[in-house]
Amino acid sequence: MQDKFIFQGTPLKQNFEYSFNEPFKEHDITMSDGVVLNVLHFISTIDSKGLILYFHGNADNLSRWGTYAPDFTKLGYDVLMMDYRGYGKSGGVPTEQLLYKDAEELMRWTNENIKHDRLVIYGRSLGAAVASHLASEAQPYKLILETPFDEIGNVAHPVFYPIIRLAPQRFVFSNKEHLKKVEAPVVVIHGTDDWIVPLSSAEKLRPFLKPGDEFVIIEGGGHHDLNTYPEFHRVLERHLW
């Protein structure tokens, strides 16, 4: 049941039409094994400073995650979002290794098809592990992690740890291992009241941060609402200048 707990994507019909307030393009990208993944490219209406590869959390699909694009397009960044296998219009079945592989192939597709001078890799929750893994190889301008965990086994509140530890862990999603290989500047953003990924899990990433990296704690912030806090946007403005 671990895969059902981790991967909670909601499928969409292939004829589903996205609707956002931001200009965007939709792409269907074929992976090397033939599986087609659905990708949205949000385009900033002001002079572009760069491109953000955004890897979303473990639930829903791009019809939800696309609503977060304005946090970045208003700062002059285009945003590219991929739905994982089995999410939204994307085909296939997700696994940890396939998420990493798909991110690498998306990176190659991006370099060949989308002009950009500055690349920022952004990961949220589960997507933080995908982002940190990619950043360990792609070496972007910057890596930003929102509500990350150290490893997937520590995402639950501590009261559930005895139950979790009864079963062997099939998935690792280790941000701490990936961060050891990331040379780019890293920014971690987390809230004090996150009941899905406890702050204590994110705190375990501190030893793997470099001088100049930043760990931002938003007082009162939860797992789903950090962008409702002014401090969150100040952090983005500071790092996405």
Short descriptors:
9 helices; eight-stranded mixed sheet; two-stranded parallel sheet; Rossmann fold; 28% helix; alpha/beta; 241 residues
Describe the model.
The protein is globular and about 45 Å long. The strands form 2 sheets. An 8-stranded mixed sheet has the order 2-3-6-4-7-8-9-10, sandwiched between helices. By secondary structure, the protein is α/β, with parallel strands linked by helices. It has one domain (2-9, 18-239): Rossmann fold, CATH 3.40.50.1820. It contains 9 helices and 10 strands.
In a few lines, what is going on in this structure?
By secondary structure, the chain is an alpha/beta fold.
The general outline is globular
Radius of gyration: 17 Å
Order of helices and strands: HEEEEEHHEHEHEHHEHEH
Q: Which architecture name does CATH use?
A: 3-Layer(aba) Sandwich
Per-chain topology:
Layout: H1 2-6, E1 8-9, E2 24-30, E3 36-42, E4 50-55, E5 59-60, H2 62-65, H3 70-73, E6 77-82, H4 96-113, E7 119-124, H5 126-138, E8 142-146, H6 161-164, H7 175-179, E9 186-191, H8 199-203, E10 214-218, H9 230-239
Parallel strand pairs: 1-5, 4-6, 4-7, 7-8, 8-9, 9-10
Antiparallel strand pairs: 2-3, 3-6
